[in-house]
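Practice problem 4.
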């Protein structure tokens, strides 16, 4: 049987990036951390940590760390049910895959500061976040996939609505005749990354446009919103962020009749459901306060843009 103190050391090194920082987290010496990690590697006969700066996990190391984090969550849940206040474990960690737009609009409001765990958010496109669950790299995910990943449960959250916007000066320069196929092929867009298909989907639905378009690639939702305001390009911005700028006249909506709704779902590992009960409830409740109903989104979108 694997020693949980040794698995905790592996998890702490991978989470913090070094043996020294892991030692501070665990309140032991770096030598003790190293001894625990090496003892587990010797027992298993396989390397768990690539000793670089920062330290990286091998495939086996990732599995060990995730196993420890899930067991820690379950033990914490049991201790709560038994009214045990002084846990023998350190703070538990819950790793969640979530898209950047949700993080920067509504998701953080669902995370309570007094829950007995630490959050580790992995940022990825909503169409790819479920892959983290399939690989066992996260415990839960906000995803565009409604069908549950094997071993997981799924709940609909609602749809995150986007509006295509640009600044008045950008509109005057690049789209003097409005949004046309010619303008779409020349006016630079602002996209999050090479997984971002929102703009292609929107142009296809709005203009039946399926050709390429120039784009700047920016690393965050906030950067894209600021870039639009600075006339760097046009973009699909979450409605929650775009509306104040539109109402103030700082941004122009390119095609008000063509909004893009992206249905989102909450999936979590069934193995740790008891430990995630409060989190699941909070995520679903918070999403209902900020997202559009999924049924409305399905009716609003054209069939080419999403499966509902």
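Answer key:
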């Amino acid at each position: 049987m694997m020693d949980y103190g040794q698995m905790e050391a592996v998890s702490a090194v991978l989470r913090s990036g070094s043996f020294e920082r892991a030692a501070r987290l665990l309140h032991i010496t770096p030598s003790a951390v190293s001894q625990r990690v090496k003892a587990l590697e010797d027992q298993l006969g396989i390397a768990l940590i690539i000793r670089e700066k920062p330290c990286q996990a091998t495939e086996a190391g990732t599995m060990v760390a995730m196993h420890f984090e899930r067991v820690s969550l379950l033990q914490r849940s049991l201790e709560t049910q038994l009214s045990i206040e002084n846990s023998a474990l350190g703070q538990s960690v819950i790793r969640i895959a979530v898209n950047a737009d949700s993080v920067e609009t509504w998701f953080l409001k669902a995370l309570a500061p007094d829950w007995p765990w630490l959050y580790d958010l992995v940022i990825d496109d909503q169409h790819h976040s479920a892959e983290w669950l399939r690989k066992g790299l996260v415990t839960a995910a906000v995803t565009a996939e409604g069908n549950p990943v094997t071993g997981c449960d799924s709940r609909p959250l609602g749809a995150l609505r986007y509006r295509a916007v640009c600044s008045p000066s950008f509109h005057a320069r690049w789209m003097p005749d409005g949004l046309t196929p010619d303008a779409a092929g020349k006016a630079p867009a602002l996209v999050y990354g090479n997984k971002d298909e929102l703009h292609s989907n929107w142009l296809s639905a709005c203009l039946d446009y399926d050709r390429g378009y120039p784009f700047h690639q920016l690393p965050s939702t906030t950067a894209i919103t600021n870039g639009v305001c600075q006339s760097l390009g046009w973009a699909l911005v979450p409605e929650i962020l775009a509306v104040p700028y539109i109402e103030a006249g700082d941004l122009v909506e390119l095609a008000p009749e063509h909004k893009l709704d992206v249905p989102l779902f909450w999936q979590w590992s069934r193995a740790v459901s008891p430990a995630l009960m409060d989190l699941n409830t909070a995520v679903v409740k918070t999403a209902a306060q900020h997202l559009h109903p999924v049924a409305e989104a399905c009716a609003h979108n054209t069939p080419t843009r999403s499966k509902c």
